[in-house]
Amino acid sequence: MISSRVGPPVRGEDFFGRDAFVELVSEKLKGGSVLLAAPRRFGKTSVMYSLIDRPRWNYQIVHADLQHLIEPAELITLLVVQLAKCDDGRLTRIANGLSYFPKKFWSGLTNKLEEIELLRIKIKLREHLRPRWQEAGEELFKRIADSQTTVIFILDELPMMIDRMARSESHREDAKTMLRWMRALRLSPNIENVRFLIAGSIGIGRVLNELGEISAINDFEQLRLEPFSVKMGTELLEQLARSHCLPLSKSSKRKMLDLIGPPIPYFIQIIFSEVAKAYGQDGKPINPKTVERIYREKVLGVDCVTYFDHYYGRLRDYYRPHEEKATKKILRELAMIGHLTRDTCAQLYKREVGDRKNIEEFNRLMTDLENDFYIRFNSDANQFEFACKLLRDWWLRHYGMEADI
Amino acid sequence: MELLYNPDSMPEEEVKATFVARQWLVDELASLIKRQPDGAGVQHILIIAPRGMGKTTVLLMAKFAINDGNLSKRWHAVKFPEESYGVYDLADFWLEVLNIVAADTNDEQLQKQVDDLRSSFPVNNDLQEAALALIKDWRRKHKKRLVLLVDNIDMILEQINDERDEARLREVLMNDGAMMIVGCALSFFDEARSYEKPLYNFFKTYDLAKLKFEQIQELLLRRARLDGVENFEETLKANKTRLRVLEYFTGGNPRLVLMLYRVITQSDISEVHRGLEKLLDEVTPYFKAKVESLPAQLRKILDHIARVSSKTNEGLTPTEIARAVRLTANQVSSQLKRLADMGFVRSANLRSRSSHYALSEPLYAIWHQMRFGRDARERMQWLVDFIKAYYDSEEMGAESQRLEVRFRELLAVGRMPEAHDVLDHHRYLADAMDDPIVRAGAIDKLVRGYIEVRDVDILRKEVLSGLDLRALSYWTLFTLYEAGCITDHEIVLSDSTVPLSDEVQQRVEAAKSLASVRAALSAKRFVDARQHLDRLILLVPNEPVFWVAHGFVRHNLGEREAAVASFDRALELDQGDAQIWAMRGKTLKALKRFEEAIASYDRSLKINDRQSPVWLDRAAALDALNRAEVALESIDRAIEVDPASSDAWLARGESLSEADRKVEALASFDRALDINPDHHKASLMRGTMLWVLGQSDEAVACLDRALQIKDGDPNAEIVRVHAHLMKAGIIMYQGNLVSARSEWLESLRSLKPEHLDYIIESLSEILFLFAEVAELTVVRELIAEAGLDERLFPMARAIDYILSGDEALIEKLSPEIRGIVEEIVAKLRSAANQTEPKQKKLPPTEVRSTKQVNAGKTTSGKRRRARRQLN
Lengths: 405, 871
What we know:
- The complex is a heterodimer.
- Chain A is an alpha/beta fold.
- Chain A folds into three domains: 18-224, P-loop containing nucleotide triphosphate hydrolases (Rossmann fold, 3-Layer(aba) Sandwich); 230-307, Orthogonal Bundle (Helicase, Ruva Protein, domain 3); 309-399, Arc Repressor Mutant, subunit A (Orthogonal Bundle).
- In chain A, 59% of the residues lie in helices and 9% in strands.
- Chain A is built from 19 helices and eight strands.
- Chain A has helices spanning 19-31, 44-53, 72-85, 89-97, 103-110, 115-129, 133-147, 158-167, 172-187, 204-211, 230-243, 250-260, 265-282, 288-299, 305-318, 321-337, 342-353, 359-371, 389-399, and strands at 34-37, 60-65, 151-156, 194-199, 221-224, 339-340, 375-378, 383-386.
- Chain B is mainly α.
- Helices cover 69% and strands 5% of the residues of chain B.
- A five-stranded parallel sheet of chain B has the order 2-3-4-1-5, with helices on both faces.
- Chain B is elongated, with a radius of gyration of 44 Å.
- Chains A and B meet through helix 6 and helix 15 of A and helix 6, helix 8 and helix 17 of B.
């Protein structure tokens, strides 16, 4: 029985419906490094934990969450420490064999030294590595390469770390250095048994673009977290309903999936959460009509605005002013009409940008919108449409009629 | 009362006993904690609700749930205080966790370790990691994880304001599993709702809905049970409509419900006011910061909604707002969405586009009112509106009276702060009154109250502003004048002056004159009083009370015809005033226009037949017309109205004695003395009646008691003289000339010369009595000894004539005087022929046995003489 979880990664039986995707990631990791692509809250970290909890083939995992790091020395220190803490003796021996690895740390781990004492050692290690982090990193990966053990480094929130470094005057160059260094490492013929699985809350593409290092990840295979199938979406609803003791009819479930469009698990969770709240407060049975009302009033209303409002706000933050206007125009038309050909979108674009019209820039804009999960290209109909119905409804509701400010 | 707003300080039992409506959330939290995975994947919670909705209480209940049950084996609840002003970065946050754990568990060693951390790890990031490491160590040692119950987590994160710290926090919470956060916030704050922020949608959120009607009832019941308020359940059942009012005014906000609970159970408005002031202090920094961070346009719109909806209690459409703030409707709609997102406003009726927008938080509305209200009235408008809606006008009137009585009680014993509170309470009540007459009365009392407690400041700041002075009584106007709150031309407010209208200026002049009248009357300076009243009725010719005062003064000056004219004028203005008719009657009676007097009394009694003194006055007038039977009926009515009136019983006794119903008369005098043992006249009359009934010794004893009475009443002196004289007469009849003479002299010794006129007739009567039993020479000596030769000249001459037989003594007199003297001579001779010998006379009973006819006459004569002495 699964429960509705918001925020933390879902593990164990709560991790639902992504087995096939995890298998795919696992397979891809056999051949190289993988970049998980999806908006925030779509379940990337949960996929990572699934690989950690249930390894599919013979690999060892070193997991590190990088979201608070700001310098390469911290990264290397963290990787070394994580390595040393692994259950697998092979990895711990690798760590222990490093020339700079503090013996005290090793004995501290084995003797269950207090965390605070271990921290003191870690701080010293970090200080030691600061001026020579590349060297230390190379030694680390060389030792891994020599061990013949396949090690997958799962680096959660690497984009966030890069982004933070890029925004800091004193760390920006380090960011570039680190990216290049990591790429070189990945591509080194001497290091064949190291893989990287990265994902992040913010799009790495945009971060690297800003840094001018877009090629830093061109060796990663990008895998997008796609919506569930309808069957899987229905199953998810059933499980959620059971765990919440919420009687949910077939028609109600069907209605919920119809309303949100492609069964993106995150959106399924959102609509289910609102339905469950309403049931909890009113105690009245749920039927399709109620579902529709809840969808219109709650999911599309101010109660759920935080789930979607960033789509609008990011246009202002990440797109150039003339592009912002054009994008809003295109999206509004898409919301109203439902689908637009590329040519129509181009016309709308040209009308807004005026003399600055540039077909390459238009193409890039549309790609960005796809990458940022606003829209998708329906190759069957040869048209653009919103990435999901829910997003379209929301856009239509809040931005379909009024003038932009 | 403070604890209602500070659940952290309430005893655990009290928190549990008054917890309503949210138990499902506490149960869900407990269930969630129980099911948390080890390691990564812990679910963190955010409870969102405006102030006063019970977030802190939910956290407390969650803590109790953890501590009371099995969860305490694996979890330790760490309850943050409501405000954590000392947390400015993640290191502070972890250190605070450790401090609380150390305090909760009395772990001195842990506390020492915490204290040492700052010096051991000077770099902030390292300190943060060290504090976290210490938490992990604690966890390992005690095999427990921590539930961090963090009130106002949004404030903490805002104080931290560092993306890296937030990222680290997220990382720890997501991956470590050592801690679970249950945080509370006023809104879905930026750190948790912004896509770019580390904590974006990181928490599972719960909103605390407003209390429903049944839940409000439950809360009130539980609170009342705890406070020992009797019969509250019945009160609630009988007042469902009022509870709806409560629901409306509080918006289902538990804190406001409990505030108003104080109003309805203990009429404790002053304390609610203090509570609201405290609330204002608490929320001002928060709301101020929130509002000031808004762009100007948003602030303008929000301010407009707050001002208008606080007056009308209704939402506004975008069109209405646009018109008022001079923006387009589209612009306003867009801005309203933003305000709704931020939690300032909420919309209703979204089916069409004509949504109404109102403030989302009742507390914000109240805060806005209290902070920006132009005057005290506006600032407490919420409370006033509640009182208006909750109480009907009759209750408000009754409450107003109760408060006035309470104020006087507190003032009398010098309990000034409480007296002040009562005044404040009364002020809100007055503001809530719709009935203008009741309201005017309340305001009148209030103004005088504030002057009596010498709080002119409040008057100037909060009461006088906007007050219609025309509604105030003259006396209140005068007290304001004396206190310097008004001058002849202006109202003096705390920061400005307001000119008085002509009408009010005139009233002020009248008030001053009235004050002079009062002062003069108090000092019995009737001439001065009349002068001031002459001026007063020139200023205000149509005020009946002034004409009444005028009549009263003229009556006391002996200008009785003029007094009647004044009363008539008053009656032209107000025919329905019973007192005016009564006073008119009294003056007419004094003029011996008894028929008219009776008619006037009758008019008074028709308006109000519960006036005992008026029935008595009417009886006296009837008696003067020899309508004794009707007079007695009138007296009986007086007694029916006021059975405890000793004067009424006295009058009854006198009337009965006049009707020769001596025993009944005596009983009435006895009754008068039962009620008032110090009633001079009743004592005297009783004594007289006892003597008439032949009980001389008892009569003398009674008169002696009468003489013991110490009374400040100027008439008491005269009564005392009469008592002496009556005693003298009785003793004389008993044959004790020496004692009788002594009493005679004693009566005159205590007599003031100015009172001689009142007593002269009685003196004559007593001398006639003496003449019946003593030689005329004795009587003549008594006159000479008393120095009354001149005042009692006719009697003195008559006796001299009888004793000497000298015709010349009479012939020299003027015809008028001669006639009087000859009358007296005849009377004396008649008295002298009554009995022999002269020095002694047998008691009246013995007289009856030997001279039955004469005894009867004599007895009647004594009674009449006795009565005449006293009238």
